[in-house]
Specification:
Shape: globular
Largest sheet: 6 strands, mixed
Strand content: 5-15%
Strand order of the largest sheet: 1-8-7-2-6-3
Radius of gyration: 19 Å
Structural class: alpha/beta
Order of helices and strands: HHEEHEEHEHHEHHEHEH
């Protein structure tokens, strides 16, 4: 593909990605229907194992597609010590749709299959929405502050969705992925949220606080993952599809899930403040790390 024009590469990448997605998602959807019709624990475990295997095949297909780009270089630190038999809570920054591809490809052989917290709108994407449903991924509804003022009964619905989804993950090792910013980074969102960070949106703590509350005793570690595309910072997903993505930088830091992260986030205001402060500190350090990565590659380029 390196010899093809960018437009042709983009078209071929889209076609191949769609084909890989269809081939892997259709069996997942069919298995999900079986799980729905026969809600027996033994059937559920068998079908879930098959669904996770098909998701691994999808991740492998994406890895092959990335290998078609000979210019792409990976800069990874922190993969040592991970295990597919453990439970993980993965927290990362969200720059682009490319993030999901990177996480799937990078971790497919190191940790259990990723389960993402997804926006409700993604449920309507052909094949992907139903496959994510069959994989028990939680779909979250986002409400504006003004909407919640008019409909206070909707407050806390996402937290309850998180709790129910996390209960399902007790049965087998799972990696729960939460992009705690709640949305992909854009300059407009950066201004609207008045973010105190250079490269990040403010983090939202409720989702991971509830995940730790439900599964905290099973999480072996929290994976603090920092994603950066120092040479393709503006449009990494488009550059990935068009064969122009040149470097993916990932830093993985294992964080102990200690007792100080366990508490009642909904009703205990003091714990809520402490937890948000801990997450803000994590995000500040992540922002500094991204600045350092960008500076290092900028200086190396000169």
């Amino acid at each position: 593909m390196s010899r093809l024009p960018a437009a042709i590469t983009l078209l071929l990448s889209i076609i191949l990605t769609i084909l890989v997605t269809i081939v892997c998602s259709v069996p997942i959807i069919m298995a999900g229907i079986i799980k729905l019709l026969f809600p027996v624990p033994a059937v559920w475990r068998t079908v879930s194992g098959f669904c996770n295997f098909m998701m691994y095949c999808w991740c492998q297909g994406l890895a092959w597609l990335l290998h078609l780009n000979p210019h792409l270089k990976w800069d990874i630190e922190g993969l040592d010590g991970l295990n597919k038999k453990n439970w993980y809570l993965l927290v990362g920054n969200h720059r682009s749709w490319a993030d999901i591809v990177v996480l799937c490809v990078l971790f497919r052989k190191h940790i259990p299959m990723n389960k993402y917290f997804l926006k409700q709108q993604l449920a309507w994407i052909p094949f992907i929405g139903l496959a994510c449903w069959a994989l028990d991924m939680p779909f979250m509804k986002r409400y504006s502050r003004s909407y919640l003022i008019r409909h206070p009964e909707r407050r806390g619905r996402d937290v309850e969705t998180t709790r129910r989804s996390c209960e399902k993950f007790r049965a087998q090792p799972t990696t729960i992925v939460n992009f705690v910013e709640g949305s992909r980074f854009t300059e407009e969102k950066h201004r609207q949220t008045r973010s105190p960070y250079n490269n990040l949106l403010p983090p939202k703590a409720a989702g991971i606080a509830m995940a730790i509350s439900v599964l905290g005793d099973q999480f072996d570690k929290l994976l603090n993952v920092t994603l950066c595309y120092p040479e393709n910072d503006k449009t990494p997903f488009y550059d990935m599809l068009s064969g122009r993505l040149t470097r993916i930088v990932v830093r993985i830091n294992l964080v102990q899930v200690g007792e100080e992260l366990h508490g009642d986030y909904i009703n205990d205001k003091n714990f809520k403040r402490r937890f948000q402060l801990w997450l803000n500190t994590l995000w500040h350090d992540k922002d500094v790390l991204i600045n350092n990565i960008k500076s290092a590659y900028k200086n190396a380029g000169h």
